[in-house]
Amino acid sequence: MVLSANVVKSRITKIFILFLLVLLLLSMKPLDSFAQDYYFPFVNVRIDINNDGSFNVIEERTYNFSGDFHWATYTLGKGGYDYIEDFLIEDENGYYELTNSETSNPGTYTFTDNGSSYEAKFFYSASNENKSFTFRYKVIGGIKAYQDVADFYWKLVGSGWDKRTDQFNAYIYFPSTVNQDNFYVFGHGPLSGTVEKIDGSGVHYKLTGLPANTYVEARIIFSSDILDISKESGNKLDSILAYERNLAEQANRQRAKVRISFALALLLPLALFALWLYLFFKYGKEHPPRVDVVYTR
Q1: C-alpha atoms less than 13 angstroms from C-alpha of 175 in its C-beta half-sphere
Q2: What radius of gyration do the chain's Cα atoms show?
Q3: What is the dihedral of CA 266, 191, 44, 139, to 10 degrees?
């Protein structure tokens, strides 16, 4: 059976319109995105390394609330350090009050050692607004020192945050200035993040568009001589650099895969559109008959 040009044209047009509708549906937000929800427009972290190998953490986390909210939790997983102390929470109204049990009163919080993690549950009142909380604490035993180098290895963002972060920045400072050619910086997490040295005073980690449940780690290798801390026997620089070099090679392979996927995502719609144009001009136009035939008898 031979289809007329108009029928072919109609079917090609319907297929193309269906393709556009599928792209539109894939780009639309789900209906529940308009329900009560929140995310983090900004997260800023400052860490000051102390001479004794401890370090102080100040984390300002801004919530964007859609709806009414009254409590939240802040969790720190254990591992890689001895313990934390001097944990505090504050907002624009001042420091929160630590209580032995949950009161649900705004401006209060509880702090619990759960064995595998520390958890703070804090209470506030927020409705359809941006609200910032600052968390402060001191980490004891979080830096390992060897004969040649000290190893700062810290999870700046844990994988337990189940909402996205739009803008993330972290600044980490040494107790004294060091030669910037004599320390190494590494970042673990999304491939889009950047890390740079701040002269010889510290390091800046930056990331835009951090997905939910995604961790960010900082690792800084520097001279152990600037710390007043006992050193473990042996040298570690070579083995640390070899480990990080392997991670970097894996990350580069992943970046290559991402670039290829991105290129295919751009080329596929163009290829389909080109195919539609080809079929349209070949079959979709009504051509006049080549010969006028008059039947007589």
Answers
A1: 19
A2: 29
A3: 160
Strands 97-98 and 108-113: parallel
- The Cα–Cα gap between 143 and 138 comes to 12
Tokens 């953490």 correspond to what residue?
57
Tokens linked to 44 = 């800023």
Which are the contacts of 279, defined by CB distance < 8 A and separation ≥ 6? 8, 12
pLDDT (mean) for 182-189: 94
Does the structure show a pLDDT above 80 at 290? no
Q: CA angle, 77 as apex, 71 and 83 as ends, to 5°?
A: 105
Q: Can you give the pTM of this predicted structure?
A: 0.75
Question: What would the two tokens of residue 194 be?
Answer: 């950047």
As a whole-number percent, the residues of the chain with pLDDT over 90 amount to 67
Contacts (Cβ under 8 Å, ≥6 apart) of 226: 51, 150, 174, 175, 176, 178
Model pLDDT for residues 199-255, shown as the tens digit of each residue = 899 999 999 999 999 999 999 999 999 999 999 999 999 999 999 999 878 766 665
DSSP 3-state of 142: coil
More confident residue, 210 or 266: 210
The b/e string for 192-206 (b: 16+ C-beta within 10 A; e otherwise) is ebebebeeeebbebe
CA distance to 101, 131, 215, per residue, from 118 (Å): 15, 23, 17
**Judging by DSSP bridges, how do beta strands 165-173 and 37-49 pair with one another?**
parallel
Confirm if 87 and 120 have CB atoms less than 8 A apart.
Answer: yes
Two tokens, residue 29: 């937000």
First to last CA, the chain: 29
How many angstroms separate the CA atoms of 250 and 95, rounded? 44
